[in-house]
Design brief:
With 282 residues, the protein is an alpha/beta fold. The protein has ten helices and twelve strands.
Length: 282
């Protein structure tokens, strides 16, 4: 990489950030397009978040991705929020041109799923009621899902999220139930989205939230976990003849959307995907 006096800096803020796959993905994209950009990860202590944003403005940094634990707290330091980011209540991308916050996690999941099937007019089950579930659920609603059923061990959390999505007026059919009901609900579902951490490395032998016995061949199964690539849930989906969607695709597409926000250019998806797989040793 040729760093010059004119090089534009974008990056990631979080705590910690050493594990991030974003630098190799974005730097490969910039290099392939011959763009004078570099992507750097910054470990920012929560106590220093305000000064980090102010410092980034002073240093003419062009954009940030935002990861745990800053996605909610950072919103108070921004001048503007994208409509869906405001609904979600969390930001994972900042554009310093207008100090505007976006959330590209949801669109990343939608684009991953839509490699296999359209979301519009589909009945979707979402497992989990945390931040990822919230981001994805609002985007499912925005992209025309027929119904969303949010399942969680803590049913009250699922009900709270379902109420928020319903109140957005983006969709008219949102339900909540216990994750223990998943086997009874999968038969009528078109898409299953798993936002729980079950099966994430090093816990690769966790019990999946659903097994092949309760899946059908027309079901699309998306797991937001991307390490390992083929989670216990996706192994069950393949066994059932259902269509798997890999979590790495969400990471890829959310990054591509951030790239577009910062640069105004379409990201080279194939280059970014190759860099991700190489970094993961695949």
């Amino acid at each position: 990489m040729n760093i010059k006096g004119s090089t534009n800096i974008v990056g990631l803020i979080g705590h910690p950030v050493e594990h991030s796959f974003s630098p190799p993905m974005h730097n490969a994209a910039f290099q392939s397009l011959g763009m004078d950009y570099a992507y750097v990860a910054f470990d920012v202590n929560p106590n220093d978040l305000s000064s980090a944003i102010e410092g980034a403005r002073s240093l003419n940094i062009k954009g940030f991705n935002v990861t745990i634990p800053h996605k909610i707290e950072v919103m108070q330091y921004l001048d503007e929020l994208d409509e869906v980011a405001e609904l979600i209540g969390a930001v994972n991308t900042i554009d310093f041109k207008n100090l505007k916050g976006y959330n590209t996690d949801g669109i990343g999941a939608i684009k991953a799923i839509e490699e296999v099937t359209k979301v519009k007019d589909r009945d979707v089950i979402v497992a989990g009621a945390g931040g990822a579930s919230r981001a994805i659920s609002f985007y499912l609603a925005r992209f025309g899902a027929s119904s969303i059923t949010i399942l969680n061990r803590n049913v009250e959390r699922a009900q709270s999220l379902a109420g928020d999505v319903l109140a957005s007026d983006l969709i008219g059919d949102v339900n909540a139930d216990s994750i223990s009901e998943i086997d009874n609900l999968l038969g009528d579902a078109d898409i299953l989205v798993d936002t729980t951490p079950l099966g994430m490395d090093p816990h690769i032998d966790d019990e999946p939230i659903a097994t092949a016995d309760n899946m059908h061949e027309d079901l699309v199964v998306f797991d937001a976990v991307y390490n390992p690539n083929e989670t216990v849930l996706l192994k069950e989906a393949i066994k059932a003849g259902a269509k798997p969607v890999y979590g790495i695709k969400m990471l890829l597409y959310q990054g591509a959307e951030s790239f577009r926000i910062w640069t105004g250019r379409d990201a080279p998806i194939d280059v970014m995907e190759k860099a991700l797989n190489e970094y993961l040793g695949r």
